[in-house]
Amino acid sequence: MPTYAILGATGATGSSLLTLLLPLPNTHLNLYARSPARLHAMHPTLSSNPSNVSIYTGAFSDTALLASCLRGVDVIFSVVAQNSNEPECSIAVRVTKGVVETLELLKKENDEGEGWKCPKVVFLSSQSLNARASKEIPKPMLWLLHQAAWYIYKDLEQAIEYLRSFPWIPLILAEPGGLLNEAPNEKGVRVSEDESSGFISYVDLAKGMVLMAEEGNGERWIGKEVGIVVGQEPAVWKRMALARHLLPGLLASWIPGLWRMGTRLGAW
């Protein structure tokens, strides 16, 4: 029975992974979230205490609790993220350091790793950080995206660099394009090193991340940067919904004081 840990189970990606994996037979889920109330509100079926789910709630700095969540799992889906380009945000780095510290603890528990197999870490990154995957995006648009998500991308890049400094951790980088709250694509999902759809739904991202964890007996995508490809991208007017993040993101990068004022006033 495979055991999956979902770190960030109340976020859009984590919630989609939970919805996708929960009904599967012979699968156990370890869920890590900061708010038990929000987790149960989003997934009322958890109130019945399904036997294939274990819930851990607390801060990611709680190494003992995180160790309980990660002990014995096969795959860690690290999907804690934020959409707001908050100046000096560091959520990805903080969670990553907590995960690495915990894995080092588990490794020591098992006689310095002898006979212990480190779980795969499927880490949520972005298509925009991969030059090959984003080659179809016009350069002016790619520059604008990087400016509008400057602090988010900086946080992700530092987290990835830190993870890669521990070569004994089997790492898979999931690099989706723009993410939308849409129904899953009817024409299917596949994953690729060389392609990545510009826009996908969170459900399709979850499907793609599970494929990354399972294809080739779980070994195919280790050490690689992987995109998600859908049969048909959402309509243009649906993609425009992401444009609402551009202005506040650019202000956060260029005029942080104005961004903070708008945040306090609830402008975004």
Describe this structure in words.
By secondary structure, the protein is an alpha/beta fold. It contains ten helices and ten strands. The strands form two sheets. It has an eight-stranded mixed beta sheet, sandwiched between helices. Strands 7-9 form a two-stranded parallel ribbon. Strand 2 (28-33), helix 2 (36-42) and strand 3 (53-57) form a beta-alpha-beta unit. Helix 4 (91-109) packs parallel to helix 6. The radius of gyration is 18 Å and the shape is globular. It starts with a strand and ends with a helix. The model has no long low-confidence stretch (mean pLDDT 91).
- Widest sheet: strand ordering: 3-2-1-4-5-6-10-8
Please provide the ordered H/E string of secondary-structure elements.
Answer: EHEHEHEHEHHEEEEHEHHH
Multimerization state = single chain
Count of helix runs: 10
Radius of gyration: 18 Å
Categorize the overall geometry.
Answer: globular
> Which spans have pLDDT < 50 for at least 5 consecutive residues?
none
Terminus-to-terminus distance? 44 Å
Mean pLDDT figure: 91
| Estimated share of beta-strand residues | 15-25%
What's the total number of strands?
A: 10
Describe the biggest sheet?
A: 8 strands, mixed
